[in-house]
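A reminder from the course coordinator: this example appears on the midterm review sheet, so study it carefully.

Given structure:
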């Protein structure tokens, strides 16, 4: 005898509620930014050259493959310049990217020091920065206060001969005198006769930045080294101002890092020195402002050069000056702020500018929304732009809607780099484990076997497409997309453009991870980055006018502002001396972070609370300081009214209310949409809350009576009844069992809301009940699971798994008879149960949780594929054929549910949409269309269709994933016996693309609304 309809409805409600709770707890963050922050420093250790330190985690002795290499570097000039980092996948050591990496890491560390320390990465970061900075000290082979006397290494190794060698750095020949031999490693320097102000400026910036980090508390702090670095930074700054001009490269050519200007590098150096001197020497910041103006005049605004990298450090210099108190005249400060805002907005706007074929515009987006400049190193550029975007939001903390756009742009771009893309490929080796990662990165040392006796060369490794790299270069970020094909990437060693990692990508990636950790920490505990970025801003951000250098300040300089620094005819400041270390008064204490840069969580919360719409309202309601009385409670619930489907917020509000009137205020949050919710929902909420309170009172009463009886007349065992003492678990179980038939989805949501509120405010009205409520929830879930039919229990267990392999493992266990907490179930009942749940969700006017719907659809597809594998026939087919709606009948049988629809009840709009997709030949375009259709009820998915039967009238006519997948399976089966194999293949391709889109939705990687 079947379960009565009411029982089946409650059963489905409970399973959906369980899944919703599990999804909510799993959606705190799409990515682990602490792990991402740690990985780039692993890569820097892989890139180390010279006598490797014992702490290097890539050493052979530590289970890696690296060892000492190129110990003779610099002997040709009579100096020891061993050490440092290889710049990329080869064995060149180039000063420019080394310096750039240190300076950009340091800015992120100064602004987000708290993130580094909270993630446990601070000491690793400083240790690696120190390694690079110590090599820069070696590279500064002649240090002098006389600018003309300084000598600085620009490069070690010859590009042509180095690239002719594929193998281990440890086994490469050294100091060959013939340029045709692989071991030809000449040392190239800059001096007064061979100018290179770009390199001298970059090294000055890196030394100054490293000195700041080495003065901060930590395991690798070193004030003595910091003093030396700071002194050298000042010497090289003056050297750069003296020589000016860019380095032409070895022998006038063959420069792997040719600069287009030097003013931006010197501007970054002077900005770091200003950061050090700001509190004690005014003239340093005066010169920094002058160099910034010179760089702006030379490079232009973001519209002229919108990519932040080693060849354009002006955005980094601008950001550093903004967060440093420089005493700038108002017009200057406004110009820099406008420049930075325009830089960030240009990247954001590019998300909506399709490339059409990569490289057509300076900044444009692939069909999947990844912003690309058409230049090499796209992943590193995207990371840098994301980091600067969040930094600008940190600096301008009060502009909530604009800042949410900046934050979420960074989240999206980093997400694409980390595998949230149509290729499901992460360009960061080692993260995340669920995405494909480069196996054939163009990286010599990691491609070779850890056993140095195994040959490694062009034939044995480089051109061997069946031999993936022998070692995982953890933390290596490769370039990413190919140059000319939209969204394409090839994982081959021949792909130097898109598959070679470089140290110059590290600073942007690490700074972005630290910035997002800071942002994550500022969000309420119940607000995930996914929810934060899904919130719609109250109003669109206003366009930012282009930054143009004013001929005259809009306001006169204040009395505190000094006159402009002396400049030469080209507009660059002259080599006016910055005070030496000895001449400067000692600051009272080193600054731990850039002044005004780090926004505290409290300050951000206050700013967010004053904004309208979006996640700020949730934050407002969660803070007890804002709901202390009825008036503020009313304001709080008004915020939530815009999203009445978020019942958890209503319950959180209710749990915080101190009196009955305040609680009544909270109920208003579910009345914003009477058509969808209305009085019936309010009644359900009130009944659930009342039932929960009754149960808690009964449990506490039983425990009190037990304790009182034991006190008055203790039994032999200490109880008051002559039997075993009543535990909390016993009392809870007794209460739950008596009421299990009334404990529906509303009860679970109410209970979860109370628990969440109590956990965040343990001193509040319900805080002391937290342990008891958690015990109550666990018991309810346990009792509910016991009473579900086997198929529903399997489905509930399967929906807990995010990864496909884990879900398929649960399903296989069920199909083979069950084991442990997985009961046995046949494929037909599993398919039928999944279809019922999908129909329940898709037949509603509003899909409450598209992540859950996507996972349900995936589970049904996985049941279907297992059916094809095992040859069983799904019982869902007959049910769907007779179903009034015929909405999602995919079944689990060998034909994939093809018999679930008759011609009269096939969903017409999904069928029309599928026909449109068949005509689209570009997979990336199809993925974009599928993403749009599955993430929202998209009017443009296909024209509305006339109902083919009375059963279809009144049903929602959207292209929703359950109907789509079922219709697609039926169409594939329908063309199986026909000659149009090309059409069937296209349909099969669409099926796999749809599954990939559903997977991204259920993971929270695509924002569903």
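Designed residues:
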């Amino acid at each position: 005898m079947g379960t009565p309809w009411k029982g089946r409805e409650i059963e489905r409600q409970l399973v959906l509620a369980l899944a919703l709770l599990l999804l909510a707890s799993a959606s705190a963050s799409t990515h682990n930014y602490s792990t991402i922050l740690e990985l780039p420093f692993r890569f820097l250790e892989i890139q180390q050259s010279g006598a490797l330190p014992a702490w290097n985690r890539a050493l052979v002795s530590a289970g890696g493959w690296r060892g000492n290499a190129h110990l003779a570097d610099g002997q040709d000039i009579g100096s020891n310049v061993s050490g440092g980092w290889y710049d990329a996948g080869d064995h060149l050591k180039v000063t420019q990217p080394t310096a750039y990496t240190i300076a950009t890491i340091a800015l992120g560390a100064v602004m987000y020091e708290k993130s580094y320390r909270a993630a446990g990465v601070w000491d690793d970061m400083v240790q690696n920065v120190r390694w690079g900075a110590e090599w820069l000290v070696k590279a500064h082979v002649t240090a002098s206060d006389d600018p003309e006397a300084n000598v600085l290494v620009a490069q070690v190794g010859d590009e042509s001969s180095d690239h002719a060698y594929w193998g281990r750095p440890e086994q490469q020949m050294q100091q060959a005198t013939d340029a045709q031999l692989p071991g030809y490693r000449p040392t190239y320097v800059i001096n007064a006769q061979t100018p290179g102000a770009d390199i001298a400026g970059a090294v000055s910036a890196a030394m100054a930045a490293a000195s700041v980090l080495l003065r901060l508390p930590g395991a690798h702090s070193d004030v003595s080294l910091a003093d030396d670095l700071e002194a050298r930074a000042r010497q090289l700054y003056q050297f750069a101002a003296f020589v000016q001009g860019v380095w032409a490269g070895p022998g006038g050519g063959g420069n792997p890092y040719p600069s287009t200007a030097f003013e931006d590098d010197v501007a970054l150096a002077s900005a770091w020195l200003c950061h050090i001197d700001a509190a004690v020497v005014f003239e340093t910041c005066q010169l920094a402002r002058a160099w910034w103006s010179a760089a702006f005049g030379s490079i232009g605004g973001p519209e002229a050069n919108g990519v932040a990298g080693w060849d354009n450090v002006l955005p980094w210099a601008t950001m550093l000056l903004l967060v440093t108190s420089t005493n700038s005249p108002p017009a200057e400060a406004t110009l820099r702020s406008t420049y930075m805002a325009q830089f960030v907005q240009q990247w954001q706007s590019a998300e909506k500018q399709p490339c059409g074929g990569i490289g057509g515009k300076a900044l444009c987006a692939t069909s999947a929304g990844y912003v690309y400049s058409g230049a090499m190193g796209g992943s590193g550029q995207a990371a840098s732009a994301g980091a600067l975007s969040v930094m600008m939001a940190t600096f301008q903390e009060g502009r909530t809607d604009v800042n949410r756009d900046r934050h979420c742009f960074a989240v999206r771009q980093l997400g694409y780099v980390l595998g949230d893309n149509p290729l499901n490929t992460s360009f960061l080796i080692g993260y995340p484990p669920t995405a494909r990662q480069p196996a054939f990165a163009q990286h010599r040392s990691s491609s070779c076997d850890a056993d140095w006796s195994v040959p490694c060369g062009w034939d044995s490794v480089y051109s061997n497409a069946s031999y993936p790299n022998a070692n995982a270069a953890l933390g290596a970020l490769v370039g990413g997309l190919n140059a000319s094909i939209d969204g394409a990437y090839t994982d081959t060693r021949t792909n130097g453009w898109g598959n070679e990692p470089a140290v110059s990508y590290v600073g942007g990636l690490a700074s972005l991870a630290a910035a997002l950790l800071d942002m994550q920490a500022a969000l309420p505990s119940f607000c995930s980055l996914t929810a934060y970025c899904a919130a719609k801003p109250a109003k669109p951000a206003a366009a930012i006018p282009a930054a143009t250098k004013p001929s005259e300040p809009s306001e006169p300089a204040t009395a505190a502002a000094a006159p402009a620094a002396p400049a030469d005819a080209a507009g660059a400041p002259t080599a006016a001396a910055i005070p030496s270390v000895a001449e400067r008064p000692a600051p009272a204490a080193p600054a731990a972070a850039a002044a005004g840069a780090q926004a505290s969580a409290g300050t951000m919360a206050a700013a967010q609370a004053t904004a309208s719409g979006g996640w700020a309202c949730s934050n407002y309601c969660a803070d007890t300081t804002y709901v202390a009385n009825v008036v503020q409670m009313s304001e709080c619930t008004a915020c939530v009214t815009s999203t009445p489907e978020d019942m958890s917020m209503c319950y959180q509000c209710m749990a915080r209310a101190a009196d009955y009137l305040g609680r009544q205020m909270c109920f208003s949050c579910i009345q914003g949409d009477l058509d969808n919710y209305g009085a019936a929902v309010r009644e359900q909420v009130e009944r659930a809350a009342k039932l929960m309170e009754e149960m808690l009172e009964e449990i506490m009463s039983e425990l009190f009576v037990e304790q009182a009886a034991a006190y008055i007349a203790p039994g032999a065992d200490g109880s008051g009844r002559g039997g075993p003492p009543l535990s909390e678990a016993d009392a809870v179980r007794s209460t739950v069992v008596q009421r299990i038939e009334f404990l529906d989805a509303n009860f679970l949501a109410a209970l979860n809301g109370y628990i969440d509120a109590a956990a965040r405010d343990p001193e509040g009205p319900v805080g002391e009940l937290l342990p008891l409520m958690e015990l109550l929830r666990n018991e309810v879930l346990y009792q509910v699971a016991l009473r579900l039919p086997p198929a529903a229990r399997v489905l509930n267990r399967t929906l807990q798994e995010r990864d496909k392999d884990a879900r398929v493992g649960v399903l296989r266990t069920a199909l083979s008879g069950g084991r442990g907490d997985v009961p046995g179930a046949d494929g037909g009942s599993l398919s039928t149960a999944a279809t019922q749940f999908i129909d329940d969700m898709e037949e509603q006017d509003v899909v409450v949780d598209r992540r859950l719907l996507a996972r349900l659809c995936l589970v049904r597809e996985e049941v279907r594929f297992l059916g094809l594998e095992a040859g069983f026939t799904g019982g869902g087919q007959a049910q769907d054929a007779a179903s009034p709606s015929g909405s999602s009948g995919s079944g689990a049988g060998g034909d994939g549910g093809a018999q679930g629809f008759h011609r009269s009840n096939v969903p017409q709009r999904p069928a029309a949409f599928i026909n449109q997709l068949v005509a689209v030949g570009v997979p990336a375009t199809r993925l974009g269309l599928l993403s749009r259709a599955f993430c929202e009820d998209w009017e443009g998915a296909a024209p509305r269709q006339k109902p083919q039967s009375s059963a279809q009238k009144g049903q929602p006519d959207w292209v929703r994933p359950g109907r789509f997948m079922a219709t697609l399976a039926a169409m594939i089966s329908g063309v199986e016996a026909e000659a149009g194999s090309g059409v069937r293949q296209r349909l099969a391709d669409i099926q796999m693309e749809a599954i990939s889109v559903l997977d991204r939705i259920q993971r929270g990687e695509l924002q569903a609304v």
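The mean pLDDT is 76. The longest strand covers residues 152-156.
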